[in-house]
Amino acid sequence: MKNIEILAPAGSMESLIAAVRCGANAVYLGTKGINARRGAANFTFEELKQAVEYCHARGVKVYLALNILVADSELELAYKTVQASLSLGVDAFIVQDLGLAKIIHTHFPTAKLHASTQCSVNTPEGFKALEEMGFVRAVIPREMSLDEIKEIRRSTDMELEIFVHGALCMCVSGQCYMSAMLGSKSGNRGLCKQPCRLGFSADASSSCDLSLKDLSLIRHINEIADNGIVSLKIEGRMKRPEYVASAVTSCKKAISGEYSSADEGTLKSVFSRTGFTDGYFTGKRENMFGTRQKEDVVAAKDVLKELSHLYDNENPLVPIDLEFVCKAGRRAVLTASALGKTATATGEVPEKAINKAMTEDSVKARLAKFGNTQFYLNNIKIDLDDGLILPASVINAMRREVAEKLNQTEVEPFVQMPYKAKRIIQKDCTAYLTARFLHPEAIPDRHPFKRVFIPVWSSDEDFVDNRAGVEIPRGLFGMEQELTKRLEHLRKIGVKKALCSNLGAYTLAKKLGFDVYGDFGLNIFNSESAVLFNSPIISFEATLEQANKINADDTGIIGYGYLPLMLTRNCPIKNHLGCAECTGKLTDRKGFEFAVKCNKYPCVEILNPVPIYMGDRQDEIHTDFIHLYFTDESKAQVEKIIDMFKNGSAFEGKYTRGLTYRGVE
User: Fold this and answer.
1) Is residue 34 located within the same domain as residue 89?
2) Do 40 and 90 fall into the same domain?
3) What is the total count of domains within the chain?
């Protein structure tokens, strides 16, 4: 337990100082450009330099969050950001975009990669794949139970990190497109506007059925540590320093067995949404929903001032060992060791004492006074001849000198390879069509699709009769063994193709002998990530211009369908009404209806109210194929859509172009 890491958020320098002074072992932060909390104050490179120096002088690591999707036009900036950060001594990089991870691993082979929860990896096979891609640590999805975490721990030698406190999104990390589709502010690009906290109701009552309470697993820290987790992560780069101080202090108390209900009360006061939840971790997901109430806001004013005192002054958190040698006729020498470093200061030649000579106790008392620094005296060895005296000012100066030398940080050398961006291309081809069908009975007897996919739970007859490939769900928590058996069976009856929306499914299907294809849930946003997967469907957060210029073989975009805006493990309708009263939809405050789709796997999907349609803009599409995403359409409606694409017809009724032209910030 003593070696487990407390990893604190640092949205500003003040929050960073609060985290360090309260005992965090590491902090994570972002620069002004590429990171998933672009709304935080964040750090310039000069500020990052100061932050790293401050942290390293106190034995605290610094992880740089680069956890967003990166466009082709930004890859060179990302490369330069990594280069500059390594030159300042950043310890590791938290990454979502697998293309960016590939660039870092290839061009900076000594850099340490941490896989963000935004990677959406939720199976043992997925974690193995991350390890093979060069990641040394991965963040466990917040939606996992303890048993599922144990399964992941057994599957990989990577370090594992877990969120233990902070905001809890309704959607599986990396799979939320609601903020992007409704307002062009993408969570995958670091600017989520949290529309899910507004009114989305299962019964049109204006209830907030997509708003979860904040997560807190601090009471479970012993269990977490006992199951091989190396880092306890606190969410909150948008939060104030007092919040950071309170959460770090609570984690330290839990590690030492001192965490109490009073500490939890303070945490609730500083920020909560009608309390906390541990529902995913325990598997008890019935009472996880909550919103920020007036009493939650008012409670904070009573604790903020008290919490600010936790980091008013430097706390002596770093042990220092001293050796003082003072011999007649030789200059005194003080050697100090801390943080794996050693520093030496040389003083004056001692004089013979006329009155009171130095003693070991008097020297120790002088050398132990590290004042308002991060050091505290751990061990001291004194070799002192009798009858000598040194001025107190000399001893004090020696103590200050070694402390200053230990404060100086050295940057570890790193290996760097030059980066050359892939050339921009403009494909000139006529796109062919592919499709997925939620309901196999809607597949026409004759259709133009080169590839057709249906859900993994479809009947054997549907696969055989339609010569269909298998679409593997995005959410596979705890389901890998069951999925493996089903896929092995499908291979035996002749199913050859698999459409995969997460890294674990893609790797598993490939191992089982399927021809694998990359689906939209892989969040492919640039050429570097596109070449990692076969015939990938580009993220629908990319503009058409960006998708057209992806330099990879056989890429596609979604040209029709009710796009999934959320993938969630906790059904909002079941929570509010129960399955027996299921309406199959959520209604927002403007009266729009969002279909909610259950399946036999452990997640539900929430769909956009109107379909995307590009049938009349096919001449602008230069990807190799266009993918049609069918959900509840009847066979007759499917045939009509096919005809519309064949003829380039305008859409009849309400529709959207999605993010095809407006893109995301």
Assistant:
1) yes
2) yes
3) 4
Q: Which residues contact 186 (CB under 8 A, 6 or more apart)?
A: 69, 177, 179, 180, 192, 541, 664, 665
**In the chain, % of residues over pLDDT 90:** 91
**Residue span of the structural domain in which 279 resides:** 5-168+212-311
Do 241 and 299 sit in the same domain of this protein?
yes
User: Residues near 100 by Cβ (< 8 Å), separated by ≥ 6?
Assistant: 66, 70, 75, 78, 526, 528, 529
The answer to whether residues 153 and 297 belong to one domain is yes
Question: Within 10 A of 513 (CB to CB), how many other CB atoms are there?
Answer: 12
358 within 8 A of 332, measured Cβ to Cβ: no
pLDDT in tens, 211-253: 999 999 999 999 999 999 999 999 999 999 999 999 999 999 9
Residues 250 and 196 in one domain: no
Determine the residue type at 238. M
CA distance 338 to 402: 10
Instruction: Please give the Cα distance from 423 to 70 (Å, whole number).
Output: 16
**Both tokens of residue 537?**
């469907």
The tokens for 433 are 């069509």
Q: How far is residue 512 from each of residues 508, 509, 532, measured CA to CA in Å?
A: 6, 5, 18
Is the model's pLDDT at 429 over the cut of 90? Answer: no
Q: Are residues 89 and 186 in the same domain?
A: no
pLDDT digits (tens, 9 = 90+) for 543-579: 999 999 999 999 999 999 999 999 999 999 999 999 9
Question: Mind giving me the DSSP string for 260-296?
Answer: -HHHHHHHHHHS-SSSEE-HHHHT--TT-B----HHH
User: Does residue 510 share a domain with residue 451?
Assistant: yes
165 and 250 in contact (C-beta within 8 Å)?
yes
Rounded to 5 degrees, what angle do the CA atoms 307, 311, 315 make? 135
Of 311, 341, 366, which residue constitutes the final position of a domain?
A: 311
d(CA 140, CA 116): 8
Residue 32 sits in a domain of what CATH number?
3.20.20.380
Separation CA 483–CA 491 (nearest Å): 12
418's CB contacts (< 8 A; 6+ apart) are 107
**Domain-embedded: residue 414:** no
Distance of CA 56 to the CA centre of its chain: 23
Q: Looking at the domain assignment, is residue 421 inside a domain?
A: no
In a domain, 148, yes or no: yes
> Which residues on neighbouring strands pair with residue 164, listed in sequence order?
none
Residues 6+ apart with CB under 8 A from 309: none
Is residue 419 a part of any domain in this protein? no
Residue in the block written with tokens 């599957």: 155
Distance CA 440, CA 162 (A): 39
Residue 149 and residue 273 in one domain = yes
Dihedral, 454, 455, 457, 459 alpha carbons, nearest 10: -10
User: From the CB of residue 277, how many other CB atoms can be counted at a distance below 10 Å?
Assistant: 24
